[in-house]
Amino acid sequence: MKPEVAIAILYQHQTFLLQLRDNIPNIAYPGHWGLFGGHLDPGETPEVAVVRELQEEICYVAPDLVKFGIYEDDRATRHVFAAPLTVDVSELKLMEGWDLGLFTIAEIQQGERFSDRANQIRPLGAIHQRILLDFINAKG
Fold first, then answer.
1. What are the tens digits of pLDDT across the range 25-77?
2. Residue 65 is part of a domain; what is its CATH number?
3. Domain count, the chain
4. What is the pTM of this model?
5. Which residues form the Nudix hydrolase domain (predicted)?
6. What is the 3-state secondary structure (H, E, C) of the chain?
């Protein structure tokens, strides 16, 4: 059975918050930019998991989380939620991952971005790019 994960599109104006995943070979998309979130604990709903993951990863409680969709591939079933980012990025506390940052639509389309902490350009995970582009297109 494929793992189930809950991830969040956090947006602020025309930008989107992404996490640079740790560069550890045994995780999905190591060293790639991706959406915040993670695996569902046994018996946990996606709605509960996404709230927990955001608190664990960036100490953020997202208002008005709305289910955007489900994305399934050979790696995982991803429950995708969306919510506004209502605080400045400097107020977030990165507890998991290598870096974080707000991406412009052009950067999402380009599929890569420089990380100050990694001191290099890192790619955006393909599934995360697809989800974000779908969201941007759906919202016009």
1. 888 888 999 999 999 999 999 999 999 999 999 999 999 999 999 999 988 99
2. 3.90.79.10
3. 1
4. 0.95
5. 1-127
6. CCCEEEEEEEEECCEEEEEECCCCCCCCCCCCEECEEEECCCCCCHHHHHHHHHHHHHCCCCCCCEEEEEEECCCCEEEEEEEECCCCHHHCCCCCCCEEEEEEHHHHHHCEEEECCCCEEEEECHHHHHHHHHHHHHHC
